[in-house]
Amino acid sequence: MKKRYLFFGVLAYAVFLLATLPASWLAWGLHHLSQGKVLLDQTAGSAWVGAGRLYVSDAKGSDHELGRARWRLSAARLLLLQVRTQVRVSGQQSELFANVTLTPWRLSLSETRLSASAQLATLLYPPASLFAPLGQLRLRTDSLALGRDGLQGAAEVYWDQAGSDLSAVRPLGDYRVDIAARGKEATLKLTTAKGPMDLTGQGRWQILGSGQLQLSGTARATARADELQPLLRLMGRNVGGGRTAFSVRAPLKIRWPLL
């Protein structure tokens, strides 16, 4: 009888400890899981329901604030070896809402909506600084999952009011990239919504292995052609009919610890 009381006493104490875990524990886990690239500071509340300031680290190790993060974790999912949380981030230049499910084998996003300054892309992916992007980036996905078998799902990336320090024409246009991921590889489709520079293209992204991304297509000026000629010459070769062929190759490897 005493052993039974001892067992339930230890169990109740363990449940109490889990229920009162401070938010700083979650901050430590996020920093470790992201290999030091993501920092959660000035935390408040618990690991289950809390808030804090979210930062990302660039290639030089400098931290950049994304905004105030708020989360709500489902404790019941831990019994299934899952961490399921709803995340909101609000900042001056970024907004994020996502339902995140994490298991030892898979990271899943659902109903995800992200909006951020295009300059944020240069922090997360330094090679993008060559184009000095301007404007606003948006990402939408209803379902996207990353695991040992690669990436599954679909996403839409929008570049609104797109611009670059390489051209005085601003904005260049509003663009969209549709991503369809099927495991080891994803297909890309680039289209233009509006703007003086029309872009169309197709591409592939090797999710596993090299992480090589390739996007090829054509660009043409639908307005302000003379002003756009310097940029078009930088992008590629003239193939006639006012069209310039371009090709982009870049490594974009997803650094997920379990892959």
Short description:
This protein has 259 residues and is an alpha+beta fold. The protein is 17% helix and 55% strand.
Give a description of the structure:
The chain has 259 residues and is an alpha+beta fold. The longest helix has 18 residues, at 2-19. Residues 3-20 have low confidence and may be disordered. It has a 14-stranded antiparallel beta sheet with strand order 1-2-3-4-5-6-7-8-9-10-11-12-14-13. The chain has helices spanning 2-19, 23-33, 120-124, 225-235; strands at residues 38-45, 49-57, 63-74, 83-90, 94-102, 106-117, 133-147, 150-164, 173-183, 185-194, 197-206, 212-221, 236-240, 243-251. 17% of the residues lie in helices and 55% in strands. A hairpin with a 2-residue loop joins strand 10 (185-194) and strand 11 (197-206). It is elongated and about 65 Å long. It contains 4 helices and 14 strands.
